[in-house]
From TrEMBL:
Gene3D superfamilies: Bacterial extracellular solute-binding protein, family 7. Residues 1-23 form the signal peptide. Keywords: Receptor, Signal, Transport. The keyword Signal applies. It comes from Sphaerotilus montanus. It comes from the Bacteria. It holds the Pfam family DctP. GO terms for cellular component: outer membrane-bounded periplasmic space. Belongs to the bacterial solute-binding protein 7 family. This is Tripartite ATP-independent transporter DctP family solute receptor. GO terms for biological process: transmembrane transport.
């Protein structure tokens, strides 16, 4: 009888331990818009690998690329509700939550990748991410989409005037609509998963994105002309559901944060190392590539200054703070 009791107790203890272990195991969904093989997807996969390694496999992150979980706006809402745990998206899209994030969409804000890294990884970028907590979002780190360029199916762009009249897809927010209007083009806000079909069906003439996006999404199949304008730099925010975050212990939070920091550095390095190769691949795929002369690039900047001034008024403090940080970097 005594031996039977001991066996029963041992079995019960084993079941209890197994139950605790099972309870600690978690699976998170990670959504992003770009497809498998894109540097952002590679960064997401690296994050998932790091989380698994840092938690001994207790936390599994499943990556859903290519917008299969829906567009950015719907994903942000799902993240706030806790049905999607992790997202990576253009930081400027978060202006729908905190208006100051619009500053990341200002044309020609950063002169290069070094400046961008210093800003987003420094106090300025961290402060903006911290403000998301009140909106049910935890800002973990910044990755990058990179510098954006314009493609279209109608004509080569050799001058700023060549942009006029084109119907261009833009990220659905006010500043992107306004800078396209300032160039005499017709902005068409559109969720990213709809862009390829829009180009293929001629609902839009063109779009603007970094080279990696143009290549990974095979826009060269439905776009003939590429103008290397580098008119806007897009940091990406790697964000987490605060609703879920608040249920986690300190060790798991640290594992997620550390994984995000490491994955962000990896992703940026991959993205930058691929840039020159991406341009060559697009040329091989048949795209006709043009670059604006220094004089035309200066004209482009001048035409977009009023847009920055208009949208900067509502977030004047944030703009001044960013410009002060940039001034320090440029000394």
């Amino acid at each position: 009888m005594k031996r039977l009791m001991i066996k029963t107790l041992v079995a019960a203890a084993a079941l209890a331990i197994a139950g605790v272990a099972a309870a600690q195991e978690k699976t998170f969904k990670f959504g992003l818009q770009n497809p498998k093989g894109h540097p952002l997807e590679m960064g997401a996969v690296k994050f998932a690998e790091l989380v698994a390694a840092k938690t001994g496999g207790r936390i599994k992150v499943n990556v859903f690329a290519g917008g299969v979980l829906g567009g950015d706006a719907a994903n942000v809402s799902a993240l706030q509700g806790g049905t999607i745990e992790v997202l990576m998206l253009n930081s400027g899209i978060l202006a729908s939550q905190i208006k100051d994030f619009e500053v990341y969409d200002f044309p020609f804000m950063f002169a290069g990748a070094r400046e961008a890294d210093a800003i987003v990884d420094g106090p300025f970028g961290q402060k903006l991410h911290a403000r998301l907590a009140d909106k049910g979002i935890v800002g973990l780190a910044y990755t990058e989409l990179g510098f954006r360029n314009i493609t279209n199916s109608r004509k080569p762009i050799n001058t700023v005037d060549d942009i006029a009249g084109l119907k261009l897809r833009v990220i659905p927010n006010a500043i992107n609509v306004d800078w396209v209007k300032a160039l005499g083009a017709n902005p068409t806000p559109m969720a990213f998963p709809e862009v390829y079909a829009g180009l293929e069906q001629k609902a839009i003439d063109g779009q603007e994105n970094p080279l990696s996006v143009i290549l990974a999404n095979k826009f060269y199949e439905v776009q003939k002309h590429l103008a290397v304008t580098n008119h806007q730099y897009n940091p990406q925010s790697l964000i987490f559901s605060k609703k879920v975050w608040d249920t986690l212990g300190d060790a798991d939070r640290k594992a997620l944060q550390d994984a995000a920091n490491e994955a962000s550095k990896y992703q940026r390095q991959v993205n930058r190392s691929k840039s020159a190769d991406d341009l060559d691949e697009l040329k091989k795929a048949g795209m006709q590539v043009t670059e604006l002369s220094p004089a035309e690039q200066a004209r482009l900047r001048d035409k977009l200054k009023p847009v920055i001034e208009k949208h900067g008024t509502a977030i004047a403090g944030t703009v001044a703070e960013l410009q002060a940080e940039l001034a320090k970097l440029r000394k």
